[in-house]
Each structure stands twice: as structure tokens, then as C-alpha cells.
């Protein structure tokens, strides 16, 4: 037999940003315990609204099935005395299970014979188990700080007011957070504040919606808000800008969503739209409206928690509230426009970037110098890159960024445009922070690429240079993210840059502020990011390791990328494993030598037909692969070398490498060395061996 189980905890308004996490954690832990107890059930539904968390488990077993279990007792040697009478250890073990000693069995456990009790444990009723399961799920919720309320000693994230626990039509009686469970829920705080007496667990969502003006299902409420917002945006003549995080937060703030459209003075549109959008989203939880060109319109969409009889009054109230927010943004912007970027930058000499690495002004000078070098190597404008680097942090000293930290870089872009700086300089001030997160867009201008790379490389070398490298989960300067950003910018923008050389140049600029020896460690850190990046792309680890083994490949990310993709394609060929094994064999032979083999192959010492043929093919492969290597066409090189499989196999089948004649032996070792070097021009193929 099975029934639906509903448990709902009613509270004061829960923290909106934490609501989805709390709901998911509650359901996961509660269901985990049901599953561990062996209780079969159907679909599980989670409900999360501002004033409630609930779980509905469909078709839950009414009791656990009986279980046959074995309990291991004392060793037989300790269970009986010399006369064969049961000891207290045996009697106590049996009594603890409601048995007598003669009802116990014996079993060889591999470590001696022990007493074994085989019993049938009767399953418990679900109503007996659920209270403890739910209490534990509540206790385990990820709540950083719990609170008390009134004179109660219990603690929770917010004051709790009611508790519903229904198994079918039966109340599951228990106490939690000083609340006694029952069948009484409550509707919307304003539309339907009265009690709702639930008859059955399964009617929960429908009764709350129809009688209580509450959409309890978080995902359904979220979909309704998104749909209403999109419609409102179209009716306003544009497109609603829906920030996913804001959508989640708004969903957690309302029980009965109603989208309303308001407006603001067009004069505010002279302010950078990012600042206006930030003010509306962060402070008022409004959705903004954009026109067909992506420009902000003087409209906003707010999600009301009530269905007002006079929505115009609600809209007017929201318009009144947003006006001072936008006026503040306009005030900050106007003040910032009274200064040039260079004037804003003057104050950075008093702002410490890092105690040992100097001020932000010092960092800007280093960024400018390194960006100029990068721009020159990538075909950009080195003078513009230097200027953009020197001005890169100027907007950190602006009032706008002080009030809206999300405006860093963006404010610099607008100020640069306003004072007539070259367009690529303005773009670079924005692009310097890209990519901000995994999968984010990359800088598109050559100047922006140069400044972004210079900024990240300077930080990487500086922080490693003072011995504050990331450890475990600690990465206060986000060096892992910055390094992945560097690799992505170089690879995806096809930049022929030597990253190791740029690290050394950054270290030179930092001078005696750092321990230059730590640059090697920073480079090793970059190698680790190569591995993480390509593993995330699904590239097999042996493929990545085979390229990491080539030091020169690690210096140039674009070259590294070409090699990895070539080796990944080569690994799929049927010749790959045989050649990997041969390379491994060659590597082992050469590693045992006390001195390097000759640098040339003497044709007069070639005795066997197989070694003659392999020598001819190796020499030919060197000639054919040289132009391909210069072009970076590593896939073509490996396709060429794949043809060596048969002659390599034939060589090892018929030729004794370690011949008695030292001259012949050294000649054959020279051939193997040439063969291995051919593959090492791309990667250490021996590491592909399974």
C-alpha cells in the first residue's frame, strides 16, 4: 500500500537568494533518507515560495519491507569456556537480539570462526520514520547563521509559524521548531491570509493556488514571471532584458506574480545604460527594456506580489522609488565627466594594489609597457596599447565605480569615448577584464587583447613572485581563472605569442619586488591549466601529457593547441598504439645509455634489410616533415609518421639493436634516436601507450 506524503514548513519571508538552494537541499536530504530506509516511492515534487518550503512524495510505501539481516557476534573461542558452556559474551550478544545462544549459528569469517545471528527485522511504519527524517533534513540545511525568535530556544533561518505533515489524509504527528504538525496551511499574506485545511496531501498545490493565491512551485512561478516579463517588454515596444540571477531572486520574492510596466525620465538615458540597469536590477529588482539596437528604453518592468485593483497606483509608487536611484547615478556620472581619465588616474598613486607589488599606478605602468610589447608582436598599435594600459584602472577612482562596482572598465570606456580617445583604446578599457568567467566572450580588438593579457600576466608573475601562489581552494587573486583567460585569448584569437617570454618580461618589469626564480613555478602553474582546460574539452589525459612533455610546446599556447588536436586525431588511428609501444621501447633503450649515440647514421654499417629500409624512410620523413613543422601542421606530420608502423615493427622483429660489434650497435642506436626525435617534434607519443 502507498500514499502521498506532504510536509510543509511555513515561515517568515525566507532569504530570496538562498531559497532555491534551501529547497533543493531539503528535498535531496529527505528523499535520501527515504531511499536508504528502503521506502519505495513515485515522483518527488519540491515547493519553494517566500514563506514556505515543502516536499510532496507521491505513492510512498506505508511501511518498510521486512529485512533478513545478519549480525556478527564474538569469536567462538571467546563465546564458550573449556567445558563448552556459553560465556557471558555469547549470552549477552544473544540477549541483545532477543535470542538464546542455541539459536545462533557459526560462520568462518576468514579470521576465525564467529557466532552469527540471522534474524528478520520487521519493517517500521512510514509514519514512525518520517518525523526524524524531516527533522534531520531541516537540521542539515546550508544555513550560515540561524536565528531565534520570541522566547523560543529553537533556531532556524527565519521564524517558523506552521507545520503541515499529511500522509494521504492522515496527519503525521510530530513536533519541530516548537510547532505541532497538522493539516493547516496558509495562503497569500494579503490576498488570502486565512487558514487552508488540507484534506489530502495530493491537493496541496491546487488548493494553495485556487484558494490561497499562492503559486507554490518555484519553477512554475519562475516560468510565469518570465512569460509575463517578455510580454510586458513587447507591449512596451522593446525587449525585456532578463538577467537569470535576477529572475531567480524575483521568483523567490513573490507568491502571486503580476508584471507591471513603469517609466522614467528620458533625460536619464544620457547616463551609461549599464549603470541605470545596475541601479534598477540591484536596488529595485526591476527588469529593464531594450530597443531593437540593444539600447535602454525609459521603461522598466516590476513584478508585484499582489493583483491590485488599481495597478496605476502601484506603478506610480515604483516610479517614485526608482527616480532618486537614477538621479544618484546621473549625479555621479556628471561629476566623473568633469575630469579626464588621466586626472582620475592621478589618485591611483595612493591606492595600494599589493603591499610588495606597489600601487595601482605602478601596476598600470607595467601593464602599459607589457601591452605595448604584445601589441607589437600581434600586429596591433603598440602606442595605443601602452596608453590603454596606463589608463586601464583610471575609472577605479571614479564616483560611478565607487557606487557601482560592476561599472569598472565600462565607465572607463565611456569616459575615453567622451574625451575623444582612439576607439580601440576605449574598447580596451572595457575588454581588459574579459573573459570574466568560463565561457565568457573574449577581447576582440588587438589593443584589448594586449591589455587584458598584460594585466593578467603581471598579476600572475607578481603574486607567484612574492610566494602567494594558489593553494587548495584558496585563490584570492583568481589566478586559475586569469590563467585560463590568458590561454583562451591566445588560442582562440590565434595569437603567435611565446607565453614564457612574456612571463620573463613581466618579471623584469617587477624587478626586485619579486623573486625572479618563482617565474618557473608560475610557468608550471600554466602547464597545469593546460591540462585542466583540455580535460574539460574531453581530450584524453595521455594525449595532453604527451604534449606537456615537450617544453617548447608549452611556451606557445597556440602551438600547444595545434599539437594536442593533432595527437588526439592520431590516437584514433589503428597505428597509434603500435607506434606508441615502439616509442616506449626506444625511449627505454636510449634512457639506459651512459653516453648519447652518434649524431649521424653510417650507411656502410647497415647490415640488415629492415634497418636499411627504416633508415631510408626516417631520412625521407625528416625531409618531408620539415616544411610541415614550420607551418605548424602537426596532424600532417603524424599522418606521415603513421606510415612507419610496418617498417618499425619489421626492424624490431629482425634486428638485434644491442649488437656485439660496438660500431654496429652505436649506428643502430643512432637510428633509433633519429626515429624518436621525429615523433618528439610533435609530442612524446610513448605516453599514449595503454
Automatic annotation (TrEMBL):
> Which processes are annotated in GO (biological process)?
arginyl-tRNA aminoacylation; glycyl-tRNA aminoacylation
Q: Signal peptide span per the entry?
A: none
Q: Which SMART domains match?
A: DALR_1 (SM00836)
Q: What is its EC number?
A: 6.1.1.14
Boundaries of every DALR anticodon binding domain copy? 585-685
Quote the catalytic activity from the record.
tRNA(Gly) + glycine + ATP = glycyl-tRNA(Gly) + AMP + diphosphate
Q: How does it assemble?
A: Tetramer of two alpha and two beta subunits.
Extract the PANTHER family matched here.
GLYCINE--TRNA LIGASE, CHLOROPLASTIC_MITOCHONDRIAL 2 (PTHR30075:SF2), GLYCYL-TRNA SYNTHETASE (PTHR30075)
Q: What is this protein called?
A: Glycine--tRNA ligase beta subunit
What organism does the UniProt record list as the source? Alloalcanivorax xenomutans
Lineage in the entry?
Answer: Bacteria, Pseudomonadati, Pseudomonadota, Gammaproteobacteria, Oceanospirillales
What gene does this protein come from? Answer: glyS
